Amino acid sequence: MLDTPLPAPSGRGCVAAGPRADREQTTAPANAYHAHLYWQDAKGRAIADRLCEVLVTRLGAVPGTRREVAGGPHPAAELHVGFPLGRFGDLVPWLMVNRDGLSILVHPMTGDARADHTTHALWLGQPLKVNLGAL
User: Fold this and answer.
1) Whether CATH 3.30.70.1240 fits 32-134
2) What CA–CA distances, in Å, run from 95 to 42, 46, 100, 109, 116?
3) What is the pLDDT of residue 22?
4) How far apart are CA 16 and CA 62, in angstroms?
5) Staple partner for 37: which of 26, 41, 48, 65, CB 3.0–4.6 Å?
6) How far is CA 91 from CA 45, 72, 115, 120, 135, in A?
7) What span, in angstroms and rounded, lies between the C-alpha atoms of 5 and 114?
8) Residue 17 CB coordination number (10 Å)
9) How confident is the prediction along the chain (135 residues), in pLDDT tens digits per residue?
10) Collapsed DSSP state (helix, strand, coil) of residue 57
11) pTM for this model (two decimals)
12) Contact indicator for 30, 84 with CB cutoff of 8 Å
């Protein structure tokens, strides 16, 4: 808590200083996202299955691919769900508090797979090293 009151707003909003302040956004906002749930053992797989069930049946996600071993860019067994931008505010906060120890990669679907799995990515839990050579 602050001991002194905050100054009145200047009316300029959040204005960054430096060369990036006037740059335009170069990537269009994504309309769809993936959440990849990674596991290492049978217990983790059961957690992922339970989370997936809730994501699909209660939060409007669509089930995607399941890998029982590492493959492609994914460094561990995983399943993913897809969801539209309009569900982001429900799904991601729910995953934040219910991930039960799993590492989860959330990324937009902008059409640039490398950037989506790296610079545009959001990790919940321990980040894993994505196999960039597969992208």
Assistant:
1) yes
2) 20, 15, 9, 19, 19
3) 45
4) 38
5) 48
6) 19, 25, 22, 17, 26
7) 44
8) 6
9) 445 565 666 665 555 544 444 444 455 567 899 999 999 999 999 999 999 999 999 999 999 999 999 888 888 999 999 999 999 999 999 999 999 999 999 999 998 999 999 999 999 999 999 888 877
10) helix
11) 0.78
12) no
At residue 130, φ and ψ (nearest 5 deg) are -75, 140
Q: Give pLDDT, residue 42.
A: 96
Neighbours of 54 (CB within 10 A): 14
Q: Name the residue among 83, 32, 94, 86 with its Cα closest to residue 56.
A: 83
